Amino acid sequence: MNSFDIDGVILLGEGLIGVHPGPRDVIITGRSVEEFAATQRQLSAAGIFNQIFFNPLRFDQKTRESSGAHKARTLLMLYKSGYNINVHFEDDEVQAKIIEEAMVVDGVRIAPTTVVRLVHDLTEKENVWHSPKL
Predict the structure, then answer these.
(1) Which of 8, 37, 61, 97 is the most buried (most CB within 10 A)?
(2) What single string gives the DSSP state of each residue in 17-62?
(3) C-beta neighbour count of 46 within 10 angstroms
């Protein structure tokens, strides 16, 4: 199974849909749990109903770095729980680096996840509120 970021991977802004997760894949987002309702509506409208792991921090507390750390912790938790996440799709270079570094300890890869980075300028990398209205 694989994991996917939302903004810049699944949703590319202005109604553009990017990479679709498969039915068994998971979504690990930097979006705050406060953005749950809006996120569910956006993904449902795109026909995406996968399990989502939200950033537990409040919107005004999260950063690109804390979102990357959340994604890395979630990937490691899933791996330790018996799930083999082969690829994580990410567009934010800051978060991708944090995730990649978390997969290696003392030069040894501790989890098999490879980060595949999508490079584009279609979405904002900084903290953006996702309105509960569509």
Answers:
(1) 8
(2) B-PPPPTT-EEEEEEEGGGHHHHHHHHHHTT---EEEEE-S-GGG-
(3) 14
| pLDDT score recorded for residue 134 | 39
Q: What global pTM score does this model have?
A: 0.90
* pLDDT at site 95: 97
Quickly count: other Cβ atoms within 10 Å of residue 11's Cβ.
23
Pairing of strands 51-55, 108-109: unpaired
In CATH, the number for domain 3-117 is 3.40.50
Smallest CA-to-CA distance from 72 within 99, 50, 51, 52 is with 99
Write phi, then psi, for 56 (nearest 5 degrees).
-75, -10
- pLDDT given for residue 133 in this prediction: 45
| Confidence band of 16 (pLDDT split at 50, 70, 90) | confident
CA distance 76 to 111: 7
Domain boundaries defined on the chain: 3-117
Q: Identify the bridge partners of residue 123 per DSSP, sorted by sequence position.
A: none
